[in-house]
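Sample intake sheet
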Amino acid sequence: MSSDGVPNGDKVTIRMLTDMTSGVASYTFDEAWLDTYLTEPTTVWTPDELLEAGLGQPPNFEPGERFEYSNTNTVLLGKVIEEVTGRPFTEVLDQQILEPLQLTHTSFPAGDEIPDPHPRGFTLQGTPDDSFEPLDATDWSPTFGWTAGQMISTVDDLLVWGRALGTGQGILDTEESVIRLTSFPGELGYGLAMGCVDGWVGHTGELPGFNTSVFYDTTSDTTVITTVNSDVPTGDCAVSKTLPDNPKELDCMAPATRIFVAISEALGHPFSPPPLS
């Protein structure tokens, strides 16, 4: 993809998009886009519409200056994949990830369809300030994520994916795997498209109503998956909306992360993520 239209596009590298140091603003913080998404959640978005919202904002910092997670980075990476391969992203995904790993119950939906059976997902996003009644977000369009999260999977498939994500086995050669596993700024930090906390490597995922944690323990060859049909956080959350009986004495965490932390402690290798806001 050309750098035309990307703020500081002549300085932003593919690596910066991947490790979230590009400075490109996330479209999820564009007020006009967010208002449309929350008031018309079944809207089907195109990748170009997402990029228009993200790239229309000024950069948050100079490329390479610091870390800040941005969904726009990942959508740009999807566009780069399409330009380099000359094929739709979904075809590349199937050929290089889903088929080699035999992830037969993982999909990239074009609309709001979810394979049956499936749970209902609940959120406080889009609710009035004085309302604490969660909304059923199951049928909200996942197209707001495209390559930043427009996927559906199962726990069994995620167990396979989590180990592949942490080791590279089945999808990357040894050299590529080493590059990824040495890309972290320290024992805690974000490297090439995944995070690391004291040997736990992986990623979380969230759509309104659903929350997932996928992490692999490099010290014990253990993969832990937690999936929750809610994205409502708990703890001392200054920005994220919580329920009235929320335990504020805890650090702010998404539900899947809080469950994963408890599991990691039971396994004897505690996972201690930085709290949400």
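Comment: The beta strands are 122-123, 135-136, 188-190, 195-197, 200-207, 210-217, 222-228. The two ends are 34 Å apart (CA to CA).
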